[in-house]
Amino acid sequence: MSFHVIHQDGQARVGRLTTAHRVIETPFFMPAATRATGKFITTDDYKNIGINSLISNALILSLKPGVEIVRQSGGLHKFMNFSGIIFTDCGGFQMSRTMFEKKSKNALHFRNPYNNQEVILTPKKIMEIELALDSDVAMMLDDMSSYGSSFEEAKEAMENTHRWGKESLDYHQKLRIERDSKQLLFGIIQGNFYPELREKSAQFISSLDFDGIAIGGVAIGEPKEKMYEAIDSALPFIPINKPRYVMGVGSPKEIIEMIGKGIDCFDSVYPAKMARHNHLFTKQGPIAIDKSQYATDFSPLEKNCKCPTCRQYTKAYLYHLTKIDEPSGKRLKTIHNLHFIKELIEEAKKAIKEKRFSEFQEEFEKNYQGKKKII
Fold first, then answer.
1. 330 — phi, psi (to 5°)?
2. Which of 21, 188, 239, 282 is the most exposed place for a label (fewest CB within 10 A)?
3. Which residue stretches of the chain are H helix?
4. d(CA 149, CA 95)
5. Is residue 369 exposed (0-12), middle (13-18) or buried (19+ Cβ within 10 Å)?
């Protein structure tokens, strides 16, 4: 068994996930390193922050630099000089991007943005790619229907996901034996925002021998109550002895809410994207660093924050970098937001271990103001 729950407080839990490259304590957050890098941030920055988990995109990496380049380098960890956990997503999310052309019963069809060639992604093809990249955790090929899809459209996407999940798992197990690989494979629950489909999908995906179970197709523009309804519909059917992964969730409030529901890992562009758009996290809620009130504020973003940005720079300096659109300012702001999320999860884990998570959650939510309160 690659996963063990070691502490629990209500539904919230702390676990230990063992992968080929290292052991990681859950819950954890994965910043998006889609192309084997973050935006305006380096692998050294991740190390300095204490980030020990990332997610990259197998489809995108297969297009550039190409699987063979990564394989020749010794795998994705060596290619990007990162010793932590690396998940690779399959490319299903790219159905929401302009490179997606169509889907068939057996594959997703894309147009390579670098050379305009057709790319046909099948369950077997993505398993070949992800094994060659040598990530710690691969994701099965899924069909993600968009928010607003009809029941029939969502049902078709779910049925494709179920069929592709079985094919992904069977082929991955075969390749893993052939190549003596310890790569883990996670299944993905779909079903859009129809509770009966979410339940059915959770039951089917959980019946297969995946190493972990993800809830996909959420945080894609739907109202928050719809997102929570979709997650709550699936959770009762996910085995408690497997890691639970909600894909695409990355705001501080949602992460704490998800931890309270027993979710073990998350990924999102949200913290980094918000930083680039000047929304910086603090314990009292996010601030908009481009507001003129910070032009002469010579205090750090957060008084007791130990991130490199807060230890060395003031709000006034970050305001200045923002106003001149300096790329190094985007880097410093990203470092802070990612550090904030990492520390928030560490505090949540400590609260779980000390059997006081509900009090911690209540205190956090009382102090933290949502986006509408940005000042």
1. -65, -40
2. 239
3. 43-49, 58-63, 67-73, 76-80, 123-133, 151-178, 195-207, 224-234, 252-260, 270-276, 308-312, 315-323, 327-353, 357-367
4. 13
5. middle
Is 89 an annotated catalytic residue? yes
Q: What domains, with CATH codes, occur in the chain?
A: 3-275 (3.20.20.105), 276-370 (no CATH)
Phi, psi of 74, rounded to the nearest 5 degrees: 105, 15
Answer for the pair 290, 322: CB distance below 8 angstroms, yes or no.
yes
Of 89, 142, 143, 264, catalytic: 89
The residue from 45, 142, 143, 267 that is catalytic is 267
Tens-digit pLDDT profile for the chain (375 aa)? 699 999 999 999 999 999 999 999 999 999 999 999 999 999 999 999 999 999 999 999 999 999 999 999 999 999 999 999 999 999 777 877 788 999 999 999 999 999 999 999 999 999 999 999 999 999 999 999 999 999 999 999 999 999 999 999 999 999 999 999 999 999 999 999 999 999 999 999 999 999 999 999 999 999 999 999 999 999 999 999 999 999 999 999 999 999 999 999 999 999 999 999 999 999 999 999 999 999 999 999 999 999 999 999 999 999 999 999 999 999 999 999 999 999 999 999 999 999 999 999 999 999 997 544 444
Q: What CA–CA distances, in Å, run from 352 to 29, 149, 187, 284, 356?
A: 17, 38, 27, 22, 6
Contact 124, 167 (CB under 8 A): yes
Residue 325 burial (C-beta neighbours within 10 Å; 0-12, 13-18, 19+): exposed
Q: For the stretch 257-266, what's the b/e string if a residue is b when 16 or more beta carbons lie within 10 angstroms of its beta carbon?
A: bbbbebbbbb
DSSP-derived letter for residue 236 is G
